[in-house]
Please model this.
Amino acid sequence: MNIPLNVDWQQILLHWMNLAILAGGLYFLLFAPVKKFMDQRAGRYAARDAEITQKLAEAEQLKAEYQAKLDGADEEIRASQAKAQQAAQQSAEEQLDKARAEAAQLLARAQAEAEYSKEQARKASQRELKELAAQAAKKLASRMQEDPFEQFLSTAQGQGGAAHEER
Model:
């Protein structure tokens, strides 16, 4: 059957079949493996993306936990510093009280020693006064026992000798 323009339908049909076979062969030989490779690659990237997202969420959670721990540690440090400052202040007050007590003891001891020294000086001066009084009484008693004329002469000689010495 010849068609006017020399178109052979059988030839066209065979070309169409060749084209279909070629397309099917190419699909199975090239397109399917490439599509399979691309799907695997997309799956790997999706899995990596999911893994990265999960790790990022875990990292954010860890960051939040560490931040909470850090805030807790900061609060603990502040409390510890406050305790240390309070302990230091209490220790300073205790040392100050101890120093005041020692100063009071030293002052009391110094006052007692001063009082003792004062008493000793008073007793010593009283002894000296008693001794002087005793000596004066002895001299007076010895002079009383002497003759009044002798006393006069000795006194005059004492004063006269003193007057000669002054000149």
